[in-house]
Design goal:
- There is one protein chain.
- The chain is mostly beta strands.
- It folds into 2 domains: about 100 residues, Nucleic acid-binding proteins (OB fold (Dihydrolipoamide Acetyltransferase, E2P), Beta Barrel), CATH 2.40.50; about 110 residues, Nucleic acid-binding proteins (OB fold (Dihydrolipoamide Acetyltransferase, E2P)), CATH 2.40.50.140.
- Helix content is about 10%, strand content about 50%.
- The chain is built from 3 helices and 10 strands, in the order αβββββααβββββ.
- The longest helix has 17 residues.
- The radius of gyration is 19 Å and the shape is elongated.
């Protein structure tokens, strides 16, 4: 029985990936590194989830369905979707959006009001870039240079360091790094390095769409 279900899942996933869909966006919900889009395809409406995109209501997009999730709950949105398709390969009908179907939107192509980090140096990412590219960065080591805005010590046997760099917007402008010990204070300028984790739930209300773990800090 389990083997049959697995084969069905693989077949369904392959089928979705080979079929392009074109639909009109009727509602947009941005949350963390993702955009949840309610779309109209022919006479059918449904929700898809994609890597965060500068998409607007009324635009027409083309995409491929990668996987269907029934009863999916977004903890950041505090919303449960009866049916949700995870989608990839998003293209815009007006040809003004990024054309590469296998990468998330680069910072230069994002919202017009997006800022460039004044702290960024060669080899580092901005806070907003980490959120936008979270899925691709999951499990990888990154560096971010910015200002410490909050430090919480010895919670669940780790220190929690909040860093901002002037980029992002509500929900994507404050990146949390955890480490066994962080000798830092509010206002410190640091280069933080660690491993990205997506949709991390520590329990006790500590849920993060994006967080950086096993971190180290170089204070300036």
């Amino acid at each position: 029985m389990k083997q049959s279900m697995l084969l069905l899942f693989i077949y369904t996933t392959m089928l979705f990936a080979k079929t392009p869909h074109t639909a009109k966006v009727t509602e947009v919900l941005h949350s963390g590194p993702y955009s949840y889009l309610h779309v109209l395809e022919n006479n059918a409406t449904y929700w898809i989830a994609v890597n965060r995109l500068p998409v607007q209501k009324g635009q027409t997009i083309t995409f491929t369905k990668e996987m269907q999730m029934d009863g999916f709950e977004s903890k950041t949105l505090k919303r449960r979707f009866k049916h949700l398709y995870f989608a990839d390969g998003v293209r815009f009908a007006d040809r003004q959006a990024p054309r590469n179907p296998h990468t998330v939107v680069p910072l230069s192509k994002k919202l017009m009001h997006a800022k460039i980090s004044p702290y960024k140096k060669e080899g580092t990412l901005s806070v907003e870039e980490v959120f936008i590219n979270a899925k691709k960065l999951n499990g990888k080591k990154i560096k971010v240079r910015g200002k410490v805005i909050k430090v919480a010590h010895e919670i669940m046997k780790r220190d929690w360091v909040h860093i901002e760099d002037g980029t992002g917007e509500a929900g994507t402008d404050d990146l949390v790094f955890t480490a066994p010990k962080a000798d830092l204070k509010k206002g410190d300028i640091v280069t933080a390095e660690g491993t990205v984790a997506v949709e991390k739930d520590f329990g006790y209300g500590y849920f993060y769409p994006v967080i950086v773990e096993k971190s180290s800090f170089r204070k300036e």
